[in-house]
Amino acid sequence: MASAQPGVHALKLQPPCVSHTLRNGSNFIKWDEDLSTVTPVTLHVDAHGFYLFWTDQNKKKILINA
What we know:
Elements: H1 20-24, E1 26-32, E2 37-45, E3 51-55, E4 61-65
């Protein structure tokens, strides 16, 4: 490629688009393979898409770095 310049590559990343539904929380079922248990949870994602956390039936919050 004659027009390509080495080392001059600009990449513009767009911020992730997290839906309003996930920011407010959506209901899912969490499966624990070790205990073979099923737990209904509400999954939330922060507005920037960096953190996921769920709230279980006992209102206990678990944070996961994405």
